[in-house]
From TrEMBL:
Organism: Arundinibacter roseus
Transit peptide is among the record's keywords: no
Transmembrane segments: 176-193, 228-247, 278-300, 312-331, 343-363, 370-393
InterPro entries, alphabetized: DUF4271 (IPR025367)
Name of this protein: DUF4271 domain-containing protein
């Protein structure tokens, strides 16, 4: 009986010792197996996205054709350890975007973490391998040298790791754009709550395309009424934002005149926004004064109020829609404006031509207006200011 117990105990000891030896053997890595595994970066690979202008997690099956893959190595977390890089095929090793070494096929490269920290004076380094496609045949490991076993206070226990991606740095213009769009939405909400009936009719296609001269909306809505003033402010803010939006994307419109500041800090953008908003508000009221002068000369006093409100409706619907579309596209496709730059002129040209002919049809509601007078009136107030504006901008 004692012999059986002794044999059983010896068997258990042999099993545990063999398991323990096997576990150490599995964790032996590096050239000549002279390191113990601390951490494997197998699931932390990143690839650069031209769409988001930043590094994103590597996706198996999607990014397998990528010749360049990267990792963010936390130096502060793995002090006194070594960074081990192995490649099955020839690759080039980059650290912080600078070429360090050409790695031959089936070779190891050992880098001391403390030395990297002293040289680069950073707690985190970007490591990139360029050469073969995908991540197959590439290993980046954190290892503990067998020579240092017993002298290091660190435990050889792999820690939990999370994908550590640097956030996309935001520019002052992006912060400014968010603030302006939010302000426009808040003003729109305030305008609606202060006069919901007027605001609903202002956005109503039925009123916009109504040719009746008995429409009370156009008879009682004055350019100096509170609702119309708020809408004028919203449209002016939208136009100012578009000018700065185009300028930010290298479509310089006003630098030659010295109206805009040269810098792009949040404060400078805010000051430019205020100046342009006040400029456009002033232009709206100057236009209304010229409407009165031209309408008096051509005996078209009855269409002045309707013309101003309808032109403001067209401007509000077109520019606010354009702003929301451009803002949404900028979030998903930052370089969309560069691709659509050549089409912008035609978009605005088509808009103003359609607006001109719609105003001509909608203002000639009774048929008693002399067509030549109305055409001349609209040319003076719609086409000539557009030509002057384009010439001034270009």
């Amino acid at each position: 009986m004692k012999l059986v117990r002794l044999l059983s105990t010896l068997s258990l000891v042999l099993i545990f010792s063999s398991f323990f030896s096997l576990s150490w053997a599995v964790n032996e890595i590096g050239p000549d197996k002279n390191h113990y595994l601390v951490y494997d970066y197998q699931h932390d690979w990143l690839t650069f996205s031209s769409r988001y202008k930043s590094f994103v997690p590597y996706s198996k099956g999607v990014n397998d054709s990528e010749l360049s893959v990267s990792l963010l190595v936390d130096l502060s977390k793995y002090k006194r350890y070594d960074l081990l890089v192995w490649v099955a095929n020839e690759n080039y090793l980059f650290i912080e975007g600078a070429l360090q070494q050409k790695l031959t096929a089936d070779s190891w490269r050992t880098l001391n973490v403390d030395s990297l920290s002293r040289v680069y004076k950073k707690s985190e380094l970007l490591l990139t391998l360029y050469g073969s496609s995908g991540i197959d045949g590439k290993k980046v490991l954190i290892g503990h040298s067998k020579k240092n076993v017993g002298t290091s206070e660190k435990k050889l226990v792999p820690g939990l790791s999370f994908i550590n991606i640097k956030p996309i740095p935001t520019s002052p213009f992006e912060d400014y754009a968010i603030v302006v769009v939010v302000l426009i939405l808040i003003l729109t909400l305030f305008t609606y709550t202060s006069s919901p009936v007027t605001f609903r009719r202002f956005l109503s296609p039925k009123d916009l395309f109504d040719t009746s001269d008995r429409n009370d909306f156009y008879r009682f809505s004055k350019p100096y009424s509170r609702s119309v003033l708020l809408i004028t402010l919203i449209v002016s803010m939208g136009l100012a934002y578009l000018i700065l939006f185009f300028t930010h994307h290298k479509l310089d419109l006003f630098y030659k005149s010295g109206l805009l500041l040269e810098g792009e800090t949040f404060a400078q953008l805010g000051l430019d926004q205020i100046k342009l908003t006040l400029l456009f508000i002033g232009l709206f009221f100057v236009k209304f004064i010229f409407m009165g002068v031209a309408g008096g000369v051509l005996n078209l006093e009855n269409v002045i109020n309707t013309h101003y409100i309808k032109s403001l409706q067209f401007s509000y619907l077109f520019y606010l829609f354009f702003i929301l579309i451009s803002f949404s596209l900028a979030l998903q496709y930052p370089d969309w404006l560069e691709q659509a730059q050549s089409s912008l002129f035609y978009i605005f040209l088509i808009y103003y031509l359609i607006r001109f002919f719609l105003l001509y049809i909608l203002l000639n509601n009774t048929g008693r207006i002399i067509n030549l007078y109305l055409f001349s009136y609209l040319c003076v107030l719609e086409i000539i200011p557009l030509i002057i504006g384009v010439k001034y901008a270009l």
